[in-house]
From TrEMBL:
<dbReference type="GO" id="GO:0009117">
    <property type="term" value="P:nucleotide metabolic process"/>
</dbReference>
<feature type="compositionally biased region" description="Basic and acidic residues">
    <location>
        <begin position="192"/>
        <end position="202"/>
    </location>
</feature>
<dbReference type="InterPro" id="IPR011146">
    <property type="entry name" value="HIT-like"/>
</dbReference>
<dbReference type="GO" id="GO:0003824">
    <property type="term" value="F:catalytic activity"/>
</dbReference>
<dbReference type="InterPro" id="IPR001310">
    <property type="entry name" value="Histidine_triad_HIT"/>
</dbReference>
<dbReference type="InterPro" id="IPR036265">
    <property type="entry name" value="HIT-like_sf"/>
</dbReference>
<dbReference type="Pfam" id="PF01230">
    <property type="entry name" value="HIT"/>
</dbReference>
<feature type="compositionally biased region" description="Acidic residues">
    <location>
        <begin position="170"/>
        <end position="191"/>
    </location>
</feature>
<feature type="region of interest" description="Disordered">
    <location>
        <begin position="138"/>
        <end position="202"/>
    </location>
</feature>
<feature type="domain" description="HIT">
    <location>
        <begin position="10"/>
        <end position="117"/>
    </location>
</feature>
<feature type="compositionally biased region" description="Basic and acidic residues">
    <location>
        <begin position="152"/>
        <end position="169"/>
    </location>
</feature>
<protein>
    <submittedName>
        <fullName>Histidine triad (HIT) family protein</fullName>
    </submittedName>
</protein>
């Protein structure tokens, strides 16, 4: 969590006082809680316990954990509330409709008797005839496919130290042995002005 940010983040404040949460599920790193201003019966949010600015900060493992909790929440809505379906929304960043600076996934149970039954959430987007043209679609395809997403690598990188120690234990051990031998000699040679420790303290 970036310093200072968690203090102001409404979701972090909620998570610090979990007795306020009306939970319908929990994993090691996520809550599923009922929205207090629901837009449908059983409207729930799946929210990371750590401050993540958007779902783009989730690791592959966190996606797996979050989506498993989403699936379990849908099961509870269908079997527990008699929901006839569900819509899942992930609003990414402000332009994408994300209303808070803390990632969340919304689960809207859908009911046949509701006025909006059968309406896909994508219906908020009007059809764009100017984008239907085959040449235009090919152009957009080219622009998007010029990008090589590197999700797995990017998300594993935050732990380079632990990875390196696991991969090269022998090399590291040899280096450490040499270093400790050297420093051991230095410690025995009292009065040597080049001693690293002394220099640090000076
Ligand atoms: Zn937060």
């Amino acid at each position: 969590m970036p310093p200072g940010q968690g203090d102001q983040c409404p979701f972090c404040q909620l998570i610090e006082n979990p007795q306020q949460l009306i939970t319908v599920g929990e994993t090691e790193n996520f809550y599923a809680w009922l929205e207090v201003q629901p837009r449908s019966k059983g409207h729930a949010n799946v929210v990371p316990k750590d401050h993540k600015e958007s779902i783009l900060e989730f690791s592959p493992e966190e996606y797996h954990e979050a989506m498993t909790l989403v699936r379990e929440t849908i099961d509870k809505a269908i079997d527990g509330l008699g929901a006839d379906g569900a819509s899942i929304t992930m609003n990414v960043k402000e332009a994408g409709g994300q209303m808070l600076p803390h990632a969340y996934i919304q689960i809207f149970p859908r009911f046949e008797e509701d006025e909006n039954a059968g309406t896909p959430t994508g219906a908020i987007f009007q059809h764009r005839e100017d984008l239907q043209d085959q040449d235009k679609l090919k152009e957009i395809q080219g622009e998007m496919n010029s990008v090589s997403p590197n999700f797995e690598t990017e998300k594993i990188e935050p732990h380079p130290e632990s990875q390196r120690f696991k991969e090269e234990p022998e090399e590291k051990q040899e280096e450490n042995v040499e270093n400790s031998e050297e420093s051991g000699e230095e410690e025995e040679d009292d009065g040597r002005p080049e001693r690293g420790e002394s220099i640090e303290w000076m």
